[in-house]
Specification:
Two copies of one chain form a homodimer.
Chain A lengths: L3 E11 L17 E4 L4 H4 L2 H8 L5 E4 L8 H14 L3 E6 L1 H13 L22 E5 L11 E6 L4 E6 L7 E4 L9 H19 L7 H23 L4 H14 L13 H13 L3 H15 L5 H11 L4 H4 L1 H18 L16 H10 L13 H11 L1
Parallel strand pairs in A: 1-8, 2-3, 2-4, 4-5, 5-8
Antiparallel strand pairs in A: 6-7
């Protein structure tokens, strides 16, 4: 097991009708900026519940945060925070709204020039406190320090991470996810699944508990994901997916083990340049990385095959077991309705050089747990994603 | 899944040579009370490392905290805290030292009479901040709000719980456990194992991820526990047991599911009156509770049998599967060297009425996830423990 330091102070408030408790979690004297996305919270009642729960508080609203939240939109919110003396940010929505909120929290207190520098590693020293009402299980942003932001002007999609942007609380009411469109439900399951895989599918580091927790999340997502599509109002199914997504990326399962975030890094750039949903890019890239890195990931892929998919590797032999595990992974994504080839989204070989160039520009020339996924390997991966 | 609120802010610093980082975790101007037990930290070098790491700080020492830490000893430390203006408590040792430290932290700031009242639920409003260097994986006290304290004068052993006594940090260096006597290593594995069982072996609440995390800890303890006895200097084995013990009772796996702490409650009283090691009492009581409550716990015992012990319930039938799961649980404890009958410790039927009477005195007349383990059932359990 590798050494680690872990501290995650986020307060998770999980269950039915918990939105009504939100006021008690926010300092009473703070002016609250309520941030939301494209308006689904106005249709499903979450907005009204939130406003009702905050009765008597000073609340200003900022809507319109887009999926793959943009720097441009976030900076408009930063202006509101500064002009209105906002003391608390309340994100009401999915991971995109929350990621934007984290960036806004940091950017509003950033005094060293253009806050976009935060995305390339400029240190932050302060942030506006924030909390979340989560309506889409997927990113784990509700219990981690990460945020992914896109800049339209340069077709970039980058992430930053800081303990200063941990939500003070996250309210997870699974009933708020009943009304999600199937595509968003499926995307969330794929996103959580790939988060686990990127903390799991590396090399064995004699950390059997971390492995089993990871496998437990994967198995649960495989069982529960399709159920959420056929019976979207099943409370326990929605609750289980929601808790899986949180634990998939609250950093617990990644403690003490190597990680490989190459699928996310390559996927982000595909989204930035071609507009695919985040989860679509992950569903395309992950199975191919398993194949291209089958030798270096061999032991863990075999373990994944045996434990998660119950493939009899002794009977099948190693190569066919790996093939089968990859096929089952791809099939799982496709069954959820998430297509797994670049061609499914109209992207062809001509787009590959620009993606590689952008990754190089961001210094992503040595991805993976062995830092051996450079431009040539990325080209091979993308060509096999077609 | 049941509703829950979860927040656990403890900073875990895990790995080799981490004790040297302790000073950075403690406010520089605080006078530190370094608390420890029977002196093993002076033999294994942990005391010297800690003192070295705290060079230049004001440190007062308080040693001699016993296993099953006593109110009487803790109150002597409370006097030191008050007299010397102690600003930070540093527990260096196992769960007993840390539980005592938590009680001392609360008692030193308790102003409503005798601090023993804390153990029967008197509210606490403040506590001296504390941190831990853990040298014995077992209780999970390093990442939870609980403390168990015994009062010699009345042969009581009770617990309290408060977020105010969360350690600010816990340093877990697995190498500090190399020198543990086999009995303490085994006890720690049994304690962690039973912590998991008490959050798992109730009724199915459609919480498959919590189940799998629990099963993952159990399986890992079953694999790694015996290895620690045969090869006490295997770093990864020690690290895996240490992380299992922390996650067994940092309250994560208990979120959203029913719990049954009857084994602990009955076990505590056996220790208080007869001096058995804590884990010995758990190893005695748990298998019998599985038997006595086999009908109400049926579904989960069968799941435990199939998943943790790989018992083929379809081939064996339900009753024999349950019998086999109980037998394997008992055998696991015995293999570690922990005897599982009251008679093994010289306790006979004559002792049973007094144990039941004490539990009644403490209001423990409706234990278990169904609150149906009362005096009569406890008598039946204890008689079958003989």
């Amino acid at each position: 097991m590798l050494d680690f330091t872990y501290q995650n102070p986020v307060k998770i408030i999980f269950g039915k009708e918990k939105i009504q408790d939100v006021a008690g979690e926010i300092p009473p004297d703070a002016t609250v900026l309520l941030l939301y996305g494209q308006g689904s919270i106005k249709k499903n009642g979450v907005h009204a519940l939130t406003i009702e729960a905050l009765a008597g508080r000073r609340v200003i609203e900022f809507g319109g945060i887009e999926p793959n939240p943009s720097y441009e939109t976030a900076m408009a919110a930063v202006n509101v925070v500064r002009e209105k003396g906002i003391g608390f940010l309340l994100s009401v929505g999915g991971g995109s709204v929350l990621d934007a909120t984290k960036f806004i929290a940091a950017a509003a207190r950033f005094e060293d020039g253009d806050p976009w520098q935060i995305m390339s590693g400029a240190p932050i020293h302060d942030a506006v406190p924030l909390g979340a009402i989560l309506t889409l299980p997927a990113t784990g942003s509700e219990m981690n320090t990460n945020a992914v932001i896109s800049r339209k002007s340069s077709a970039d999609k980058l992430y930053f991470s800081s303990p200063l942007v941990y939500p003070r609380f996250s309210i997870l009411d699974p009933t708020t996810t009943y009304s999600l469109p199937p595509r968003q439900t499926a995307n969330g399951v794929v996103d959580a699944f790939v988060h686990v895989m990127e903390q799991y599918l590396t090399w064995p580091s004699d950390a059997p508990l971390q492995d089993r927790m990871a496998e437990g999340i994967l198995q649960t997502l495989i069982e529960e994901g399709p159920k959420a599509l056929t019976d979207p109002h099943d409370y326990n199914v929605r609750a289980n997916i929601m808790w899986c997504a949180t634990l998939a990326l609250n950093d617990l399962i990644g403690q003490g083990v190597p990680e490989d975030w190459s699928t996310h890094m390559i996927g982000h750039q595909i989204t930035a340049m071609h507009g695919l949903d985040h989860a679509q890019t992950l569903a395309i890239v992950l199975p191919v990385i398993m194949d291209v890195k089958r030798d270096k990931k061999r032991e863990k892929i075999l373990q994944y095959a045996e434990r998660v998919w119950k493939i009899d590797s002794a009977a099948l032999g190693e190569e066919k077991t790996i093939d089968s595990a990859m096929a089952k992974t791809r099939e799982f994504f496709e069954t959820l309705g998430v297509r797994t080839r670049l061609g499914d989204y109209g992207i062809n070989a001509a787009s590959i050089p620009a993606i590689i160039e952008k990754l190089q520009e961001h210094g992503m020339t040595a991805l993976g747990e062995h830092a051996d996924i450079g431009p040539d390997t990325i080209r091979e991966i993308l060509e096999r994603c077609l």
